[in-house]
Amino acid sequence: MHPSIVSALAAGAPPMLAAMLAQLGLHEVEGKGSNPVIMQMARRVAGAHAKLDWVGAFYGDDDIPWCGLAVADAAVRSGLVPVLPNPLSARAWADWGSPLVGPRRGAVVVFSRQGGGHVGLVAAVTAGAKRLLVAGGNQSNQISLAWFDNIPTVRGGRVVGFRAPPSSGALPEAPVVADDGRPVSKSEA
After folding, report:
1. Which pTM does this prediction carry?
2. For 15, which of 78, 89, 146, 149 could close a Cys bridge (C-beta 3.0–4.6 Å)?
3. What digits encode the pLDDT tens for the residues 96-106?
4. Are 117 and 89 a contacting pair, CB within 8 Å?
5. Percent of the chain as helix, strand, coil, to the nearest 5
6. Complete edge-to-edge strand list for the sheet that includes strand 108-113
7. From the CB of residue 36, how many other CB atoms can be counted at a distance below 10 Å?
């Protein structure tokens, strides 16, 4: 994605989205070893609340799916505490915050996928909100902006739902961006 588009998306972004966009390009280490920044994310989330202290001990390697961890870390860096039974589980985010009818800028978006789920933050939409540009972790093994079709699971798509972070107030409309033709994400784990 062109740097000027990333800069435009970051300007005035809701806090969690701004925190996620600030780490674009952060990637896991292939093979042996782990990215120390991703491991620090686990320690930061674990230190945010007593009910999350298990996260640091559990998360021992960046080969463990980390989309939920990236969203939890963005929440913590934004001053929010993601007290969920398991913030590492993408599907658990479908119960956090308040439900939204559709995509809003900075909303948590939860997806289904074979073998589990995926979670990220809405950065932008295409005209008619047919596609979502999602900032998230573990998208092709990095924090990136990736396209997803905006089709709910009840219609055969992957979108489970949208959630507004607690205390976020009304989230702004998602900016409309041109579809750059990249295919939808198929690599989130």
Report:
1. 0.95
2. 78
3. 999 999 999 99
4. yes
5. 30, 25, 45
6. 98-100, 159-164, 108-113, 116-125, 131-139, 142-149
7. 10
